[in-house]
Design goal:
The chain contains nine helices and five strands, in the order αβαααβααβββααα. The protein is an alpha+beta fold. The strands form two sheets. It has a three-stranded antiparallel beta sheet with strand order 2-4-3. Helix 4 packs across helix 6.
Length: 174
């Protein structure tokens, strides 16, 4: 096993498209515990929805309205789909998970704009009528190394989910 770990290489180019948080993204336990959120994404194989939601959490700056201006080009680069398809095609590929986050998971309000960046409002896990705010209790931190080292691209969806569960339990262990 140790020999295998020695073979793992850091993808230094993977982190270039990633906007970095100061050190980590605070993430509520509710995202993992609510069976209609991360667990449902996993069981429905909604990996791109999961990845886009984590990107939205990174982009969130703590404003009280929960607003984010989503840059489609930067998002396509983050998802590694830029350059593999036309701009119109990757905008469609990004819009699909955003619609699911809005309609299926009630995690965002999505306001697309023709030929412009979208306006996203993150919503509270407890009350989707209220904007999202950073969790004050029962949260764990996703370190920016998750993106910096390219784990968001290298790990399977199940492994990403298990990694978040592990981070959550580590945050409460003594």
């Amino acid at each position: 096993l140790l020999d295998y770990f020695k073979e793992i290489k850091i993808d230094k180019s993977a982190g270039r498209a990633m906007p970095y948080a100061e050190s980590a993204i605070p993430t509520s336990w509710a995202f993992l515990e609510n069976p209609n959120l991360a667990g449902r994404m996993l069981s429905d194989s909604d990996e791109r929805v999961f990845d886009v939601y984590l990107l939205l959490l990174i982009e969130f700056d703590g404003n009280p309205e929960g607003r984010i201006i989503l840059d489609y080009d930067k998002t396509a680069e983050y998802l590694a789909i830029q350059g593999r398809m036309t701009r119109a095609a990757y905008r469609r590929q990004i819009t699909k998970p955003l619609r699911k986050l809005e309609e299926r998971y009630n995690l965002i309000k999505f306001q697309p704009q023709y030929a412009e960046d979208a306006v996203i409002t993150l919503l509270s896990y407890d009350d989707p009528e209220k904007p999202y705010s950073y969790p004050k209790e029962w949260y764990f931190q996703i370190p920016d190394n998750f993106w910096k080292y390219g784990w968001n691209r290298k790990l399977s969806f199940s492994a990403k989910f298990c990694y978040l569960v592990n981070l959550a339990y580590v945050s409460i262990s003594n």
